[in-house]
Amino acid sequence: MKNTRRRHPSSLASILSIASVLVMLGLFLSVLLFGQKMESRLREHVSLVVLFHLDTDEAKILDLKKQLELDDEIKDISYFSSDEGLMEMTQDLNQDILGALEFNPIPAALEIHLKSDYANQVNLARLKQELSKNILVREVTYQSGILEQIEANAHKVLLGIAALGVLFTLIAITLINSTIRLELYSQRFIIRSMQLVGAKPWFILRPFLGKGLRMSIWAVLIAVPILAGIAYLAMVFAPDLNGMLSMQEQIILAGLIFLFGVLLTTISSYLATRKYLRLKLEELY
Fold it and tell me: Which of 262, 173, 169, 249 has its CA nearest to residue 212?
């Protein structure tokens, strides 16, 4: 019994091997989450612009803005008056447009951004059609080309990530299982000795399952700080990533890594120990 708990260099190597697999798993899950967040940001940057007739009363536009803000699908709405538009165009062109035309040709506008879950071709087209029916509105436009590219690329990336996810999961399972089997291979004679003195299978399994659990916990305690360090460096060199994952999402990510490590290590320990319990004496050599 005591031998199963003795510190061996092989145990340290096994812990480091499991930790490296968990780090790779954490990196994969982080890339997946960051990819989804980036897609959401890109979708929310697609704007629907509502241009009004030149003689439209500002109060009516602001009333329409308040009505639209009640829609749960809309993230935010910005109002740009005709005077603000004229000032911006005058600065961009460096010309006195009002003096040349003797009237302000820039219409007031609303810039609408939908929440990422609703920012798609169907909802934007529907909202455009609804707003175009308003007598105050002269024109409604949105960046359909950009949205098409986002949706097409997101679909391709999702398929690629799904394929990599399946492949990586199989590799992770194989590596951790092999690590545990090698760890227990060196103790196969201890398992046989325990059988010879009449120990029941569950009594023999228990210390090895406990050891596998302890190894997985140590591996998680090594992997999580490494992932935190990598995330910190990523945010230092790419500030746009800062704040992309909430604290709750980070806790969930750490929990998934812990759960994956504990479950896979415990299951592998159980299967490997059961294998040696069923072997005959001559098969141990």
Answer: 262
Which range marks the domain in which residue 207 is found? 2-41+150-284
Structure tokens at 277: 């319990």
Q: Per-residue pLDDT tens for 59-74?
A: 999 999 999 999 999 9
pTM listed for this prediction? 0.66
Q: Which two tokens stand for residue 167?
A: 């492949």
Q: Report the CATH number at residue 104.
A: 3.30.70.3040
What whole-number distance in Å separates Cα of residue 116 and Cα of residue 36? 10
Percent of the chain residues topping a pLDDT of 90: 16
The CA distance from 20 to 261, in Å, is: 11
Q: How far is 243 from 274, CA to CA, in rounded Å?
A: 46
Domain boundary among 77, 110, 142: 142
- The pair of structure tokens assigned to 42 is 């890109």
Bridge partner residues of 98 (DSSP): none
